[in-house]
Amino acid sequence: MSDEFKIEIVNPEKSFLSKEDVNEVVVPAFEGEMGILKDHISIISFLKPGIITIQAKSGEEKYYVEDGIIEFKNNTLSILTSYILNLKDIEKNKLLELLKNAEEESNKPEISDQLKYLADQKVETLKSIN
Amino acid sequence: MASLDDLKKRITSVKSTQKITKAMKMVAAAKLKRAQDSAEKGRPYSEKMNNIILNLSSGISDKETAPKLLSGSGKEQVHLCVVMTSDRGLCGGFNANIIKKAKSYFAKLNKEGKELKIITVGSKGNDQLKRVYGNKIIENISFKSSKNANYFDAEKVGKIIIEKFQKEEFDICTIFYNQFKNVITQIPQAQQIIPLNTKSDDQNNSEDNYEFEPDEDEILSNLLPKNISTQIFKAMLENSASEQGARMSAMDNATRNAGEMVDKLTIEYNRSRQAAITKELIEIISGAESL
């Protein structure tokens, strides 16, 4: 009995990633990081900015996301996100640019608490990558 | 009858027009391939999004507390119509079809005494609608600068719509776009996005028991605005594929028509040249006979 399940990541433009040999996925869910293993109960949740870690047979992969929705059902994990980057291909300059934007956003005076929280999360995550 | 010189000029000009339409056709064909690809690739996202929302909304028993984007504002007085057209012309009936569809919808609303507000996306639609419905157009958005349909543009439109909804500027929102069926057929569509139509055609709700984190309401209220952007993005992708398809067949027709015209003009040119030669010959012969 293998304990692998399927993951699909789609963004509006295309199907970003599809893998069948995943052992564990850690996603930055809105209320805290969440690890998903095979035969997890069906769940719908959404993501805050953070890092998705995928442990697969073929190795570990990390992705930076800004938002998203996850759905786990019948051992298929679907992640819908509008902005995703593979940490491997991310460039230093791009990272700094994202960080700058996020910091600007979080320093806006009229921002709502929830947006502020999200922007702070973004800043924190981006700093940790650096 | 036109002189030989005039005919010659006309033939050259039709020929160069033909060259242009041929080139445009080929460009459209290449772009169509890409637009079709991205329309197909974009489908899983909007389908998944729709599925999740259907699952969620079927789980909400209490319609009273459901988010307004799902249940509507309770009134049906003010309609917002988002008419999505292209920024460029020369694409056959593409824009005209959407406008026709939209106009018949506007007329229906008018008859029912509903109030109408229009947002046009794409400059061609704005040009055609502003003559009759100029005072109804509250916003005109154009993405001339971006080459391909991209999600950020869609998000911008979505944000404008949601903002207006929250200010209670309208009750029902419908988007108009062309659905891409194949290169020759594009079907103009009217799709209601606010309040969301949750009656799905296929009842595949297997009553999954999902765990929600955080609770359903919060997920829904986060998801619905995203869904609107997604629907708009889908419409934009379909539209851009349709536009290229329509342009391709329109330009194909134009090229063929130009070919026919060149043939006809060439025959006319040859005939009048022959007529001129015959006339000269007759003149010479009759001149020689009279001597």
Report on this structure.
The complex is a heterodimer of chains A (130) and B (291). With 130 residues, chain A is an alpha+beta fold. Chain A has two domains: 5-86, F0F1 ATP synthase delta/epsilon subunit, N-terminal (ATP Synthase, domain 1); 92-129, no CATH class. Helix content of chain A is 25%, strand content 45%. In chain A, a hairpin with a 2-residue loop joins strand 5 and strand 6. Chain A starts with a strand and ends with a helix. Chain B has two domains: 4-21 and 254-282, no CATH class; 26-199 and 208-250, Pyruvate Kinase, Chain: A, domain 1, CATH 3.40.1380. Helix content of chain B is 62%, strand content 14%. Chain B has helices spanning 4-59, 68-71, 94-111, 123-133, 151-166, 216-289; strands spanning 78-84, 115-121, 137-141, 172-180, 186-194, 211-213. Chain B has a five-stranded mixed beta sheet, sandwiched between helices. In chain B, strand 2 (115-121), helix 4 and strand 3 (137-141) form a beta-alpha-beta unit. In chain B, helix 3 (94-111) runs parallel beside helix 4. At the A-B interface, strand 4 and strand 7 of A face helix 1, helix 5, strand 6 and helix 6 of B. Strand 4 (43-47) of chain A pairs parallel with strand 6 of chain B, so a sheet runs across the interface.
Distance between the termini of chain B: 32 Å
SSE arrangement of chain A, N to C: EEEEEEEEEHH
**What portion of residues of chain A is helical?**
10-25%
Total count of helical runs of at least 4 residues of chain A = 2
Q: Which homologous superfamily in CATH is the superfamily of the largest domain in chain B?
A: ATP synthase, F1 complex, gamma subunit
- Give the second-level CATH assignment, the architecture of the largest domain in chain A: Sandwich
Largest sheet of chain A, described in full? Answer: 9 strands, mixed
Measured by DSSP, the beta-strand proportion of chain B falls in 5-15%
> Multimeric state of these chains?
heterodimer
Number of strands of chain A: 9
